[in-house]
Fold each of these.
Amino acid sequence: MLNPRLSTLITMIGATAATRLLPHPPNMTSMIAVALFGGAYFSNRWLAFLVPLAALLASDLILGFYQHMEITYLSFALIVCIGLQLQQRRTGLRIAAAALVSALVFFVISNFGVWALGSMYPKTAAGLLACYIAAIPFFRNMLVGDLLYTAILFGGFRLLEGHVAALRESGTAANSPAN
């Protein structure tokens, strides 16, 4: 049987990932926040990777598969690693910085994949630059979604921890009042 904290974390990730299935502006999804949150809150490293990546896969099963999914999944695995760095100390500033870095990691890796594995851009430095420039409008929406969903997940769970004792991890710096 799952403990209340673990059940709540999995439920929050599943519910947040499900928002990907709702109508939304292009690239304004919750998935980067889900990966970051999973890394930051699952003390079991297997679960830190498994739950967010399974949520991404579940939504992909419904929405459909796409070319070079491996690039997306690699990006999300790296974002989980960024989240792991938050486990010892989750402050607002560190979480916001991690969300920004995560958005940049995804932007750089996914668009490099579009350039390297696709045929839309010449395999030159100018082609790579053109690919990144063409992606900037999508980055804006992605960043807004990342910051919004990061605030919802981290802030929501923080509020729950404050009101439900069974959700608190005892004796961690991540839960001290100064955070």
Amino acid sequence: MFFFTADWHLFHKNIIKYSNRPFSSIDEMNEELINRCNSVVSPSDTVIHAGDFSYGDKRKTKEILKQLNGDWLFLLGDHDRSWTNHKSLRQIYQRTINKNSITVCHWCMRTWPKSHYNSWHLYGHSHGRLPSIGKSMDIGVDTNDYYPYSYDEIETIIRSKPDNPNYRFIENLKKLQGG
């Protein structure tokens, strides 16, 4: 199973105040994020983290990684330079799951690969403050009670969203071309 998340900001004291998180300390926040994640993610699952995983150093962050279930893939965010070689991190992840083309990036995009075919875009960075357009969605932990989203949860949410703004353009172009 696939899970998606973003913006954990481990070891980032100011994120508690900035995002109005219900934690009294970074230790409490880090522990709760680990516990909530492991309560839904199994060791055989894949987790895509769309940036801003940790504000901590490599040693502290590696200790957290050892505690997490699943196989993790990290995308580059604003605060991911202290714990990893950021040059090795991708900025965009693309995959098709159950015939749904998905683009994941730390930053929200107005258009994304295959958006004109009504593909999905999952993003972070905005901590629930930026409304999505079309088939896009903020997957940051601040938007899901500090849990990662499962693919099934995202599919249910995305299905209820309107078409991408540029989707109708392709549909109309096909009609004009007789297709």
